[in-house]
Amino acid sequence: MLVTVVVVVGVVAGVTGVLIGLLALRNARRAVEDCLDVLARRTAAEGAVDAKAIRDVAVYRYDALEEMTGRLSFSVAMINGLGDGIVLTSINGRTETRTYVRPVRAGKSSQQLSPEEEQAVRAARLGLGPDIEPTLTSGGLWLRPRKSLASGGS
Fold it and tell me: What is the DSSP string of 70-98?
């Protein structure tokens, strides 16, 4: 009789364990499906995000030389989500054009940046690009997005 009781208890414990395992598996599958749905909705809304892809761009135009007007010189900052990228600067004169590239890591450069290059990096990091212009106020120099032709700007 004792053996029968032990066998019955063992069978009941085994069946209970299998049922608990099946319930846990079903709950785990449901949780995985919910997570996949959330990720699919997020990817559809935001797109696949690559932190190393260039995402912030700002062009700062200025008159670098007194002999040239029309803001033909420029600095372009191209920065990724980590704050890494480059600043490309072109200084245009009447007889020559000089072009420089400086690396940017975590929003800073290992080389000395010109004030215009610093403004381009700052504007890119703040998402003010792609085309910005300086505005002189009583509080100092501020950057603002340049109005597009479609919106009636210059």
Answer: SS-EEEEEEEETTS-EEEEEEEE-SS-EE
